[in-house]
């Protein structure tokens, strides 16, 4: 199996790159989706969040009120750290199980694990490659305004609240520049896939022992 950690700032083109790699045959795991799964009604993780932050973070239907929880933790570093200490280990355990399942089903599988907070959460799966998508701040802000409907001040605050591009680049094996055209981004993803196939072929041909 070949495990890729894919990360990057908000609106930096992670989804575009992930989609392209899936078109080539990769399996995509999305940390944001897994984070939703681990807090579904009835989970130990949701109960731990209620114990930490009170009943007001749960809606009448028993689901997590993400907006209310977000309001509590967004401005409070200590509260955010408490939330992360609950959610991150649960996501790590679930992602570990799904990665192991993919490998069991196909030992040659290429798994792209899309982790926006790879640096912040110190995700330490045994990645074969860490790929960082990188776009200029102005491009991220423009995308948040045009594609997600945020006002420019909100958009800028969202970008500024994340770790710097330099910190992400420090852990990268490959940086994909997504500040240009879509075709430019796709071309880099295609070239990355060629490199991955080459690495897998070399690994298969290498004598064992």
TrEMBL record:
Entry EC number(s): 2.7.1.24
UniProt key word Chloroplast: no
Keyword Cell inner membrane included in the entry's annotation: no
Protein name: Dephospho-CoA kinase
Catalytic activities: 3'-dephospho-CoA + ATP = ADP + CoA + H(+)
Role summary: Catalyzes the phosphorylation of the 3'-hydroxyl group of dephosphocoenzyme A to form coenzyme A.
Sequence positions that bind ATP: 11-16
Biological or metabolic pathway of the protein: Cofactor biosynthesis; coenzyme A biosynthesis; CoA from (R)-pantothenate: step 5/5
Chief location bin: cytoplasm
The species this protein was found in: Agromyces tropicus
Domain of life: Bacteria
Key words of the record: ATP-binding, Coenzyme A biosynthesis, Cytoplasm, Kinase, Nucleotide-binding, Transferase
Family: Belongs to the CoaE family.
Record localization: Cytoplasm
NCBIfam families with a match to the protein in the record: dephospho-CoA kinase (TIGR00152), PRK03333.1 (NF002879)
